[in-house]
């Protein structure tokens, strides 16, 4: 399995700047922001360290660039998908989990703690929490409209909070609980957990499609 999903990989060109941005995203996810030195990043990207400094004045600039990249590409536009094809709709909706997984280092508490004295960056990171929750809520409502979900109006907050909390905690817990498991296992288990938690809110048609795509509703 690749370190990043195809959706995220497609955001990067072959330019030196994008190579550095892509590789830093992969390394920050795996090793943590603090553990990745500029020397490691440059060598892993097959560029000279001077080229790194030319494009990014500091590691903090990389974080800020990742935040902007995430914000610019988080929207799904489910309204444009063929509403008759539930399988395409479900795959599109679930691609949000993979996209968030690709940027998971941004959502871990220890990153915010590293910038506790930087009010601007702390604010940007905290705003991501609001953005991500609102997107989940928005997509759940659209998902209901197109037949993926089936829930009552008063259940939208509950469903959104369950999805958000489960995904967010999995980003932090997964590698700690399963340090010897590979990336594919961690990603797929997180998806299985989300499916299991969402089961009561899925339409009958969605449950059938998900069973065909991912198997029974068990972990």
- Beta strands, count: 0
Q: Give helix % range.
A: 55-70%
Largest sheet: none
- What is the averaged pLDDT score? 91
What's the Cα radius of gyration? Answer: 18 Å
Q: Approximately how much beta-strand content do the residues carry?
A: under 5%
Shape: elongated
**Helix and strand pattern:** HHHHHHHHHHH
The poorly predicted ranges are: none
End-to-end gap: 20 Å
SSE-based structural type: mainly alpha
How many helical stretches? 11
Quick recap of the structure?
The protein has 219 residues and is mainly α. Helices cover 68% and strands 0% of the residues.
Write the layout of secondary structure elements.
Blueprint: H1 6-9, H2 16-31, H3 38-44, H4 49-55, H5 59-73, H6 86-102, H7 109-114, H8 119-145, H9 156-177, H10 183-198, H11 204-214
Helix pairs in contact: 8-9, 9-10
């Amino acid at each position: 399995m690749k370190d990043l999903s195809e959706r995220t990989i497609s955001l990067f060109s072959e330019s030196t700047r994008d190579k550095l941005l892509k590789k830093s995203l992969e390394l920050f996810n795996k090793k943590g922001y603090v553990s990745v030195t500029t020397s490691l990043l440059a060598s892993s990207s097959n560029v000279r360290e001077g080229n790194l400094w030319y494009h990014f004045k500091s590691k903090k600039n990389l974080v800020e660039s990742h935040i902007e990249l995430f914000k610019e590409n988080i929207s799904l536009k489910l309204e444009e998908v063929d509403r008759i094809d539930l399988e395409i709709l479900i795959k599109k909706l679930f691609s949000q989990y993979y996209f968030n997984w690709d940027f998971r280092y941004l959502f871990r508490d220890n990153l915010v703690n590293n910038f506790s004295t930087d009010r601007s960056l702390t604010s940007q990171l905290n705003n991501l929490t609001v953005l991500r929750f609102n997107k989940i809520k928005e997509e759940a409502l659209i998902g209901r409209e197109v037949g993926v979900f089936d829930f009552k109006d008063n259940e939208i907050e509950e469903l959104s909070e369950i999805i958000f909390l489960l995904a967010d905690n999995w980003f932090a817990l997964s590698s700690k609980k399963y340090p010897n498991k590979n990336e594919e296992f961690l990603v797929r288990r997180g998806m299985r957990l989300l499916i299991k938690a969402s089961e009561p809110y899925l339409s009958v048609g969605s449950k059938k499609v998900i069973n065909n795509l991912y198997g029974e509703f068990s972990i």
